[in-house]
Amino acid sequence: MTNFSSFWVIGPSGHLSPECQCCCARPRMSELESSTLIKDGERSEGGVRMVLARMPRWKLLLFVVTSLLVVAACIVIPVAVIARNKVQPAPPTTHSCADAARMIIQAAMHDSSPHNYTGLAFERLSDLTTIFGPRLSGSKALEDALDWILQKMDEDGLANVQVDNVTVPAWVRGHEYVTMNLPRKKDIGMMGLGGSVNTSSEGLTAPVIVVTSWDDLDSKASEVPGKIVVYNVPFVEYSTTVLYRTQGAIRAARYGAVAGLVRSIGPVSLYTPHTGSMAYASDVPQIPYAAITSEDAQLMQRMQDLDMPIELTIYMESHYDQPAQSRNVMAELRGTELPDEIVVVGGHTDSWDVGNGAMDDAGGVLVSWEAVRLLQRLGLVPRRTVRVVGWTNEENGLAGGNAYADLHEGVGQERHVFAIESDGGVTAPQGLGISAPSASIYNMYSAIAPLLSSIGAGNVSSPGGGADIDPLRAKGVPVAGLLVDRTKYFWYHHTNADTFDKVDPVEIRQCVATMATYAYCVANMEEDLVPNN
């Protein structure tokens, strides 16, 4: 880089001007003879006075102001950059629930607070799903993602970053397909269901019988032996319709079916098959079981209605490997007065092996984690401990939730006073669904709801909870599930379409604010929240 300040020349006009050494013409010797050349480090006191005396006043003033600004920038900018990269949490303070809620919502929604809080849930959800992709229990992708989460939690400065070691099943999908042979050739959109057995290496070819309900299956029981049962059951409501996925293989096998296919559990389909868990019973044969698209289930229904013979070939390599080791991951904001009383917030880190598991449930983990980090940044440290947990193996085993309850509730001095799970997507929050062991606890916790009305999350209902915290509920812990707008959630639930692009950056901030407000307000309550204490 050329040094443009090495030489200063007083020209014939008597004005001070820089001379570029590399690109400006050198002055003629006659000019030099009539000029005073001042080199860096060689400026005499008299020369400087002469320069200043000959300089017009306005140029002198401009020169002085510019120099001062340059010096100030050299000091202020590096200090500001360093300070930004080392934002420190605010000193711990105690606030009323209402005051804390206002601070939380302001910071979460606007990235504005006295402590330069910047929300990271959206950014980190993007990174997690992009870097690691789907995270099925037993996979390397899940364990690598857990390492990443632990590293980031430690960088956040949260307390007690730790794990629970958990043994989990390791189901592997393998190659799979379904082909229609009759009445015409066609590839069928499908996904094997989690836990399904495989077919033989030659696949399985059989005629099809389509049914629309359990009653329809029962009425056609005599026609089922040796056939593939296809459940063409329209989506009504998840908890009802999903029974055809979880129980369908058992019911079909009882009547002698050799395999089963279920219409994917979702209200809308763009030829998107949905995977998910299924079950077997010990008193009936285990048959291959998979989900197919809504479009293909309805197609086969129309074919059957026209008395057209339907024949399919199913090929599945699905199987279990040896159980694997996984982990629940967690970190805390330690309480100031009752640190052994816990408010836990979380979601599950694992996902199915399709899509990126953004809505189900990396988003739930990230909003819970960010809620705790937000409290830390704002200096909102409550009387009790607030803990974030990323549970493992929710999708196909619940080993993480069961292990957490066994290891932490009622063990030593730890007692949980509230557990909140986000496992329904991170769309616009509406409030909480709460299950409490007593009306008094329910009323105390639900009284927080109006503080969230400004972001649309002021609703509360009963019951509520989540799969990972149900073991805590069984031990008498009040539990809640984050209620969100689920209008489109089941469009891409358990599909290849569960990807980061479905997440809205404003809605995820609202979820963070909702989780953080409930966590702080309950953790800071003056009342005795531990039964029989």
Topology:
Elements: E1 7-10, E2 16-18, H1 29-33, E3 36-39, H2 45-54, H3 57-85, H4 97-110, H5 121-132, H6 140-155, E4 159-172, E5 176-182, E6 186-188, E7 190-192, E8 204-211, H7 214-219, E9 228-231, H8 238-241, H9 243-246, H10 248-254, E10 259-263, E11 289-292, H11 294-305, E12 311-316, E13 319-333, E14 338-348, H12 358-378, E15 384-391, H13 399-408, E16 415-421, E17 429-435, H14 439-446, E18 459-461, H15 470-474, E19 479-484, H16 489-492, H17 505-523
Parallel strand pairs: 8-9, 9-10, 10-11, 14-15, 14-16, 16-19, 17-18
Antiparallel strand pairs: 1-2, 1-3, 4-13, 5-6, 5-12, 7-11, 8-12, 13-15, 17-19
Number of strand segments: 19
Cα shape: globular
Could you tell me the radius of gyration in angstroms? 33 Å
Strand content: 15-25%
How many alpha or pi helices? 17
Alpha-beta classification: alpha/beta
In the sheet with the most strands, the strands line up as 4-13-15-14-16-19-17-18
What is the residue-averaged pLDDT? 88
- The portion of residues assigned to helices is 25-40%
The profile of the biggest β sheet is: 8 strands, mixed
Beginning-to-end CA distance, first to last residue: 73 Å
Low-pLDDT regions: 1-45, 79-87
